[in-house]
Structure formats: structure tokens, C-alpha cells
Amino acid sequence: MSKSLKEKNENKVVQARINKELVDEAEDIFNDLGIDRSTAMRIFYQQVVWNNGLPFEMKRPEVPNEETVKALEEDLTNASSYSSSEELWKELGI
């Protein structure tokens, strides 16, 4: 069902609580781009509609797997050290 012209021209107020530091950093960028906060939000919303989802890939932060965690926790007191790259290459047989 198509929206009437009046419905298409109605505006809604969108509010969000966002950390002040993040807002300030983002608004510095908006200013550099010559747009205000409202324009940035309209662009974001339009991109969501055009992309039929968020206009960027969203992933969870990478969490190290069990093997990586073990390697990070490994005791390095017996690790080899080298006084030069040549010494390292020699031990590696390169």
C-alpha cells in the first residue's frame, strides 16, 4: 500500500543516548564534511533502507581461540634470543 504525500512528508524525532566523547569526535568529522548531525542521521537511515540492512558489515570483536590464548600465556623464559638477524637466519637454516 502506497503512503500518501502527507505521510511521506511527516517527520519523526529520533533520540539516542550516545557518549559525549563519541558525539564530539563524530561531529568534528560531520563538520569537515559540511553536514550537521541531522543530515548525517538522514544519510544513515537512507543507507539502511537502500541496503536493506546496516550499510556496513557488523562482526563481533575477534576473540582469540584456545590455541592462541595458550600461546600468549606460554612461559617465554626459555625462549631463544639473538644478537643479530644473521644469527637467527643461521639457526633457522636459511
From TrEMBL:
Alphabetically list the UniProt keywords: Toxin-antitoxin system
Which GO BP terms apply? DNA-templated transcription; regulation of DNA-templated transcription; single-species biofilm formation
Molecular function via GO: cis-regulatory region sequence-specific DNA binding; toxic substance binding
**Looking at the keywords, is Transmembrane helix present?**
no
Question: Which Pfam family, giving just one, matches this sequence?
Answer: RelB
Report which superkingdom the organism of origin falls in: Bacteria
* Assigned protein family: Belongs to the RelB/DinJ antitoxin family.
| PANTHER family noted in UniProt | ANTITOXIN DINJ-RELATED
User: What is the protein's name according to its record?
Assistant: DNA-damage-inducible protein J
UniProt organism field = Tetragenococcus muriaticus 3MR10-3
